[in-house]
Amino acid sequence: MAKILMITGDFVEDYENMVPYQALIAMGHEVHAVCPEKRAGDFIATSIHDFEGDQTYTEKRGHNFQLNADFNTVKADQFDGLYLPGGRSPEYLRLDQRVTALIRAFFAANKPVASICHGIQLLTASHVVEGRKLTAYPACKPEVEMAGGTYVEIPLDQAITDGQLVTAPAWPAHPAMLSQFTRLL
To answer: Which residues are catalytic?
Structure first.
């Protein structure tokens, strides 16, 4: 089975962090969850984003999630694939040049990468979306287009694959995203 890196951080979307993490492990994959400035055994705070009929999602405090690996020790060549959850964490993780360099290394090696919701902000900041068709939470459409990607509007429970990149708009797409991602692994 595959060895997968998950880059996450405080106020990641709870479902987008925990559900794929557990599902990939249940499928027999090894998942290393890391966050810059934190070590294995440290916790991150999550947030729950829900669709309750407002113009955008609502946000509530989620669970604590325990990391199982150290960010400072990981390299792209140690892994078969990369998973990037959404939520609030991509806003600040994209400012860390170590994170964007690591993401670029996965793309340079043509390894499978899955990104959901606001996780796309990590891809746009890493300059890896130019010429690609991808999706994300609809509010990220301008970022995708400014980065040279083609934003594809799809239902919230669907995902798309362009080469080795799988993207999805939000947590209702877990089944579609995970199915497409694991096929690439």
So the answer is: 117-118
